[in-house]
Amino acid sequence: MGTPQGPGGLPLARVAPRPVLAPPSPRVGEIIAVAREVLEKEGAAALTMRRLGELLGIRAPSLYKHLAGKSQLEVRLVDAALVEVGDLLHGVVDRADAASVLGDLLAAYRAHARAHPNLYRLVTSGPMRRDQLTAGVEDWAGEPFYRATGEPYLAQALWAAAHGTVILELDGRYLPGSDLDRTWAALTAAFSRPVDGA
Amino acid sequence: MGTPQGPGGLPLARVAPRPVLAPPSPRVGEIIAVAREVLEKEGAAALTMRRLGELLGIRAPSLYKHLAGKSQLEVRLVDAALVEVGDLLHGVVDRADAASVLGDLLAAYRAHARAHPNLYRLVTSGPMRRDQLTAGVEDWAGEPFYRATGEPYLAQALWAAAHGTVILELDGRYLPGSDLDRTWAALTAAFSRPVDGA
DNA sequence: CGGATTGGCTAACACTGTTAGCCTCATTTC
DNA sequence: GAAATGAGGCTAACAGTGTTAGCCAATCCG
Q1: What φ, ψ does residue A105 adopt, rounded to 5°?
Q2: Per-residue confidence of chain A (198 residues) as pLDDT tens digits?
Q3: Which residues contact B48 (CB under 8 A, 6 or more apart)?
């Protein structure tokens, strides 16, 4: 009974297809893997071309034999991260029922961001170069919010609210001493009752 | 009238005092003013020490006779911006009544961020150096959300949701063709009915 | 008058992403 | 087998960043 879809009964079924990323060459795959490790373990400031070269045993300029530049490397990381988070959230929605789907989704979103804070920041901060992203990857990552709400703009608002709540948490922007579980509970409650205005 | 506070009737009265920023020396005030202009009109990437010096008629190293560094300059900008947005939002709440306060607050927050996107990003992105900020400035800027909701954690969730919704708008992260007025309407609606769970 | 302080300057350092040009080695092609 | 080609490394260098050190003129104050 994974995904019931009774009249008005969420969660909805999947619609967006899971995107397939263009498989990188072995060396490029290696570079991306190292880049992700550096980003996650050492932070965004450590993600430099020279640091990557160091870990790969080559000099920074040699990286340009494989990649057009640092921004392209970042796009690859974002691409993969969006597919991953989409997989995670779709799985959560698959396993949830109407009563708990919204809370489960928000909890999973928060947990994922806290487990990969630097990757999360890379994915969500700054303007997005859509043309460089693999097609459909944003739809894939965002659809779980639609499946959980049943209305596109409510889904967008929920995603945005979740993002705001978690990015402020990652950056330590709440007043010291705040019990963030209660903040998340308040957010969940706000979106948990039927909303007419759309 | 201005701020009724009947039992359960929002908006609440002000509590946090309006912070007073330490007045900078004339030259420092000039630097801050130029910095803000560069940031707002030319973007964060143009906010460099050399660019500031250029506009002030001096060389970059001379700026260090007045400021400890770029990050301190940024803190000054954030300080002033937080007081400003606090003034704005408190004024909105002052003028609103219980029925419309939430919508008015969110609309004002959104409008202000869109009018000063680069300043908004500076204020809200990255970790905050609380020790450098003027005391009480965060409380001042955040209190309108408490006045509009009457519950601290709901206020935090509302602020976080507003931030998420507007920062994604500024960075153009919504799917192309989205009617963001509807997204904001959905957000407003979600927070507009009484919430028990806290 | 004589220090002391203020506020400018140049030179330089360490770091960033990135380009140009060279060279070696493996592979493919005649 | 020889020759050409391309992949993938290298060093040197450039323009840009924040920042420090050290020098120097002017101004202020006792």
Answers
A1: -65, -50
A2: 444 454 457 788 888 899 999 999 999 999 999 999 999 999 999 999 999 999 999 999 999 999 999 999 999 999 999 999 999 999 999 999 999 999 999 999 999 999 999 999 999 998 778 999 999 999 999 999 999 999 999 999 999 999 999 999 999 999 999 999 999 999 999 999 764 444
A3: B60
Mutate to test the interface with A, among B146, B153, B154, B188 (most CBs of A within 10 A): B153
CATH: 3.40.50, 1.20.58, 1.10.10, 1.10.760. Which one for A22-67?
A: 1.10.10
Answer yes or no: do B183 and A126 touch at CB < 8 A: no
Q: How far is the CA of B64 from the C1' of D20 (A)?
A: 10
Residue A57 CA, nucleotide C3 C1', distance (Å): 58
CB pairs < 8 Å spanning A and B:
137
Q: Are B106 and B190 in contact (CB under 8 A)?
A: no
Which of A127, A26, A57 lies closest to B43 in space, CA to CA?
A: A127
Within 8 A of B193 by CB-CB distance, chain A residues are 193, 195
Report the CATH architecture of B26-190. Orthogonal Bundle (1.10)
